[in-house]
Amino acid sequence: MVSPLNPRMAATFLPPVMEARRWLEGVEFPADRPLINVSQAAPVAPPPLALRQAIADAALNMDEAHLYGPVLGNDNLRDEIALRWSQSYKTTIKRDQVAITSGCNQAFAATLATIAGDADEVILPTPWYFNHKMWCDMQGVRAVPLATGDDLLPDPARAEALITDRTKAIALVSPNNPGGVEYPAELLQAFYDLCSRKGITLMLDETYRDFDSRCDGVSSAAHSLFDNPDWDQTLIHLYSFSKAFRLTGHRVGAFIASKSRLTEAEKFLDTVAICPNQLGQIAALWGLQNLTDWVLGERLEILDRAKAIREGFPKLPDWKLLGCGAYFAWVEHPFDLRSDQLAQQLVRDAGLLILPGTMFTPEGDNAGAKQLRIAFANIDRSGISDMFERLKNVS
């Protein structure tokens, strides 16, 4: 007899990236048409050599790199984030408002655990980041979809209409995953004001802040939410070092919130991971102190790839480009097939691995059935051009 499963876990959908990888099984890709993988946002290139050398040196020569550390992260990294984020956002952030986590997904999980409980609600704009939805499902928190229009921007008035006495937070991602759009500062302020007025939390995931076309994340930022008095009573800022320094395998993220929020989140983090990865934290600190110019160069490259997407899209006159920015393009296809069926066909017929919109939208959502996410961080202009040629030949 099979042991029973947690019904919440059993009802949660499979990890989309892992599911998509299974579509590759048994498919052969000829040498003249190798697989183009635009399914995942994570960089596949390793960190720059100097950063890898710093990690290796720490592994060999720093005994503390192999020991437990503080649950909320190493003080030197928390101090550095507080300093640099204060400079970028033109505000004052303190160490005791900064926590380090094992990736940004854990930052979301830890902070949501302090916000919402069984049968509570969190509003997520759709298309949503699927891991946010998955975590809500597993925790018994109802993810309330907030549909966006063709501009992919959520409407605060429509969000307000969804708020009930069970609503605990609104979670936004900007620059957006999966849509690529950059939320205007005025829109973010409107959501902040709404959350403040309603006494709920605004969770703002800025994993892709380093690749925002409007600001460099060093001397400028995309909003002024930290200027609000008592910002930490409403706002939680989430961040990941995976993209900026290519530290995906080291799992280093962070969140910025009130000191009291960190005290509660510490309970979750101590139970789940005890402390963040030491080598990852050392790498993140070294990167913040030494790789500013390198990250700015990476930003320009990503912005150029986004430009290549926009320039190449006229090759697909029957398609629609709905959003493009940071690592992502969100597109509408012209075929009668559902996007999940089309995505699997594209693997076989075009050597393209692309995630369907159905992975980012509620079940039965008609928009998601017509849409796809293209994650272009790992293909250059030549690869983007090749992708468009293959899509043009799909029938």
Topology diagram in text:
Layout (H helix, E strand, L loop, with lengths): L6 H5 L4 H7 L13 E2 L11 H13 L13 H15 L8 E4 L2 H12 L5 E6 L3 H9 L3 E6 L8 H7 L4 E7 L11 H14 L2 E5 L29 E6 H4 L8 E4 L2 H14 L5 H13 L1 H21 L7 E6 L2 E5 L6 H12 L1 E2 L1 E2 L14 E5 L5 H12 L3
Parallel strand pairs: 1-11, 3-4, 3-5, 5-6, 6-7
Antiparallel strand pairs: 2-8, 7-8, 9-10, 10-13, 12-13
Helix pairs in contact: 3-11, 4-11, 5-6, 5-10, 12-14
Give a verbal description of the structure:
Strand 9 (320-325) and strand 10 form a beta hairpin. The longest helix is centred in the C-terminal third of the chain and has 21 residues, at 292-312. The protein is globular. The protein has two domains: 7-46 and 294-392, Aspartate Aminotransferase, domain 1 (Alpha-Beta Complex); 49-291, Aspartate Aminotransferase, domain 2 (3-Layer(aba) Sandwich). Helices cover 40% and strands 15% of the residues. With 395 residues, it is an alpha/beta fold. The model has no long low-confidence stretch (mean pLDDT 95).
What ranges have pLDDT less than 50 throughout 5 or more consecutive residues? none
Q: What is the CATH topology assignment of the largest domain?
A: Aspartate Aminotransferase, domain 2
Tell me the Rg in angstroms: 21 Å
The main pleated sheet reads as: 7 strands, mixed
Total number of domains: 2
Give the CATH superfamily of the largest domain: Type I PLP-dependent aspartate aminotransferase-like (Major domain)
Number of helical runs?
Answer: 14
| Residue share in β-strands | 15-25%
Q: What's the average pLDDT?
A: 95
If classified by CATH, what would the architecture of the largest domain be? 3-Layer(aba) Sandwich
Helix amount:
40-55%
